């Protein structure tokens, strides 16, 4: 059933297939690559557009301090942002879920919610949940406190963070 002639035919078929693919690649390179020397995807630029360098760097946007953004924060808009948090946190005093209760969190000492086991990483980065500390934590929890138990990726928009903190300040403050 499987003799030398069959093996020769199989090897010849594989070699022939490889040859067809190599010749097809070579033909495609000539057709679509322009057929110019140098090959291997190197294509000379047909024309270039000269651009004058004005020597001036683009003006950088000045970052608005968080204190100014927080001063203009809207607590009612923060209530809408709260929906991102409520799956793990509660606003009722003493009700801990996956995360600690956020009742009165603004101005509270870090790690002070009774009945919740905080990570040591969180206690090491801040003493009090000031609006500035909350802003840093809410932006990127794992960057702010490496090793924290909080798995949320964070709120990227500074206005959303300020609105949320303003809303939390109205709860139990």
From TrEMBL:
Entries under InterPro entries matching the protein: Cyt_c-like_dom, Cyt_c-like_dom_sf, Cyt_c_1A/1B
PANTHER family: CYTOCHROME C
Residue stretches making up the Cytochrome c domain: 73-172
One Pfam family of this chain: Cytochrom_C
Residues of the signal peptide: none
Gene3D superfamilies with a match to the protein in the record: Cytochrome c-like domain
Coiled coil residues, start to end: none
MF terms (GO), sorted A to Z: electron transfer activity; heme binding; metal ion binding
Protein name: Cytochrome c family protein
Keywords from the UniProt entry: Electron transport, Heme, Iron, Metal-binding, Transport
């Amino acid at each position: 059933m499987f003799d030398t002639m069959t093996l020769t035919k199989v090897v010849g078929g594989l070699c022939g297939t490889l040859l067809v693919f190599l010749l097809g690649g070579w033909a495609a390179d000539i057709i679509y690559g322009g057929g110019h020397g140098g090959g291997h995807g190197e294509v000379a630029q047909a024309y270039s557009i000269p651009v004058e360098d004005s020597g001036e760097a683009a003006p950088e946007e000045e970052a608005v301090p968080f204190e100014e953004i927080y001063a203009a924060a809207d607590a009612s808009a923060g209530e809408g942002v709260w929906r991102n948090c409520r799956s793990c946190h509660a606003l009722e005093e003493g009700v801990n879920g996956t995360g600690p209760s956020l009742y009165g969190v603004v101005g509270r000492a870090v790690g002070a919610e009774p009945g919740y086991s905080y990570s040591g990483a969180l206690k090491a980065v801040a003493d009090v949940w000031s609006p500035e500390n909350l802003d840093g934590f809410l932006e990127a929890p794992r960057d702010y406190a490496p090793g924290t138990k909080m798995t949320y990726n964070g709120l990227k928009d500074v206005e959303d963070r300020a609105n949320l903190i303003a809303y939390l300040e109205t709860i139990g403050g």
